[in-house]
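task queued by scheduler; priority normal; single chain, no ligands, no partner chains; default sampling; output format set to structure tokens
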Amino acid sequence: IRIGPAARSQRRRRGPLTELELSDQVERRIDQLLDELGGTQTGTVVDWLPFSGMGGS
């Protein structure tokens, strides 16, 4: 996994808490992105595609 600047903490910290804080930050960002896409309980992955035959209109 490559960690870009958006996922890097502004504070420099050493030790095991660094990894924990980074994983928590990444998890929150993924949850935010999923919420922006309609959450995880919206049906099939391709529901948002128009004319897919699996959703949309």
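post-processing summary
- The chain has a mean pLDDT of 69.
- Residues 16-36 form the longest helix (21 residues).
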